[in-house]
Amino acid sequence: MSAYAPHACFGWSARAWARPWAQFVRAHPHLRVAEALEIGAGPRSSLTPLLLGLALRVECSVYAPATLPAVQALNAKLLTADEQARVRYTRQDVHELHGRWDLIALKSVLGGVHRTHDASLADVHATIGRLVTGHLNPGGLLLTLDNGRTLLEPLLYRLGARRNGWRVFRRHDLPSAYAHYSFGVLSAASAATRLGRLGARIDDALYLCDRALTPLARQHAVHLHVYRRPS
Question: Closest by alpha carbon to 221, among 153, 162, 159, 136?
Answer without folding.
Answer: 153
